[in-house]
Write a structure and sequence with these properties.
Layout lengths: L23 H12 L5 H11 L7 H16 L6 H21 L5 H11 L5 H7 L8 H20 L5 H4 L5 H22 L5 H11 L10 H20 L3 H18 L2 H14 L31 H22 L12 H8 L1 H19 L3 E4 L2 E4 L1 H21 L16 E7 L10 H12 L16 E5 L5 E8 L2 H5 L3 H18 L4 E7 L3 E4 L1 H5 L11 H12 L6 E8 L5 E3 L5 E3 L5 H16 L3 E6 L4 H14 L3 E2 L6 H19 L1
Parallel strand pairs: 5-6, 5-8, 8-11, 11-12
Antiparallel strand pairs: 1-2, 3-4, 6-7, 9-10
Helix pairs in contact: 1-2, 1-17, 3-14, 4-7, 6-12, 7-12, 9-10, 9-13, 11-13, 11-14, 15-16, 17-20, 17-25, 20-25, 22-23, 23-24
Length: 667
Amino acid sequence: MSSGQFRYGPWDGGPDPLASPFSATDAVDEMSHQILEGRTPREALDTLLRRGMPGRRGLDDLRRAIERRRREARSRGRLDGTLDEVRRLLDTAVGQERAALFPDPGDEARLREAELDALPSDPARAVRELADYDWRSQQARETYDQISDLLRREVLDAQFRGMKQALQGATPDDLARVREMVRDLNDLLEADARGEETGARFEEFMRRHGEFFPENPRDLEELVDSLARRAAAAQRLLAGLTPAQRQELADLMATAMEDLGLSGEMSRLSRALQSARPDLDWGGRGRGRGRARGRFPEAMTGDEPLGFGDATSALEELAELDELAAALSQDYPGASLEDVDPEAVERALGRTAVDDLRQLQQIERELERQGFITRRAGTLELTPRAVRRIGDVALARIFRDVAARGRGDHTNTDAGSAGDLLGTSRRWQFGDTQPIDVVRTVRNAVLRAGPPGPGRRVRLSVDDFEVAETERRTSAAVCLLVDLSYSMALRGTWGVAKSTALALHSLVTTRFPQDKVHIIGFSDYARELRPVELAGLDSEMVQGTNLQHALLIAGRLLRRYPEAEPVIMVVTDGEPTAHLQRDGSSSFSWPPMPETLELTLAEVERLTRRGVTINVFMLDDEPRLVRFVEEMAQRNGGRVLSPDPATLGSYVIRDYLRARGARRVAR
């Protein structure tokens, strides 16, 4: 392929270069484990985002990486490095001056020594008093001048990153250009505050003064954000010192700004930045989402003294890391991964972390785009497509459990009774339960492979099978009654009940399509649950186990299928404690009122007379529950099972398959 030219051809295998690196089905499979443990779709998605996808870090991993960076930033040094350096230079200059005065026996030398002895201990006041001192030692004068130079560079570096190095050995012309830049910056900010159009003025400002901003902001908003964050960090630095240190450093900074001729302009800039970004944490007040709520004396743990500018940089980085940690926690109202700034993530953790973040941001969008989740009234809901997949996962989990116990019930593919033969046949499809048409099946195999010769057998393939067509009729109608009361969550059984219901629905609808299944949830009231609703459901924090209402609804549903064999399965961990009153309201009482038990058993009697079998799966062995369930079984003739909650799914599935097998034998 020559330079600048491209050759196109058919894709010849390997990874699809146009395929999305993200698989929504993988995400649904990851979420399904959480949903089958009883969590809502929102909780399952949040768990997925925290854990991440295979090969990609989740929010928890990113937060741990942020915490490591925060520890590194805190360990860089102490905040009072500038004070220490000023004290050191001051002591050095005074010592050098004393050394020059000592050999001189004159009174003037003694007066100078007395003046040095009378210097205040406060370095800021000492520096100011020595401003007009006539140094005898040229070396001492140069050392003192280093203090002024250091303070000028530190105070500018605290506002404009990199100034400390840029102004080392600065000339008066260099300082004049700095004053001009700050003045022009203030004029630009005030014009923006008045609502004027500042796009062209910003471009002109950067053309004239861009050398002072190596980060090269793209617009005025980005410039203001950068300057405001650094100024706020400098304020927090002062707030993190002791009162004495704070006053000393503030006085030194004020002296430096007066020397620079910038005292008024820097105050003007500070006011403009605070007005532009009032949401930032100015002075350690802990304002704004993601800001540390404490003060910073404890934040810096290193032994190395940091200069004012370097300490400001460390606190600025800490503030950004705090914001990232808060955004990644997603534990504030209205949280969204779109709040996380990819550029801040890249600065803190590198490019690979941005790729991890982008995949996390893509998960919810792709789940919605590919039809697995939807939003209704601000709530995240699963679609039927997602529920089918989750039901398949639940069913596969139960079948693995059945297989591990050496039971082969799940291999039974007979779907029960069929109607009268019609004399025709058709190709077999997965889920078909009609009788195999043996003659046509063998004929198809012979036509496909040719007649068998000596020692050659007829080999059947899936495509050869045909089934005899019959008058189709429903063979079984199943109502699964699931206890939704809060005790199910307290005992840790809600998740397995939810998983069992989804698995049974998946089994009936995919492998026994002529059977009918309805899921009814009950707490203080009962209601039929759509599979989509069930998958997104949490246990209900209400009092009441209204089995009477659930049996009443089940009876109404089973009347729709007069030709079907009716079966009710009840999953509960407590005896009935609620019933419907004449006005339709629910009446709750603990211990149960005799009326509640009588009305529930009356509903059992009514269903029994209609030939409905009621099998009960007890998830607790409380004596009251045991006595009530045994009374139900005695009146109905159904079975009572007391499975370990972890094996509930296999019990229910096996019971359904066993009942189907019994019906087949009876016919």
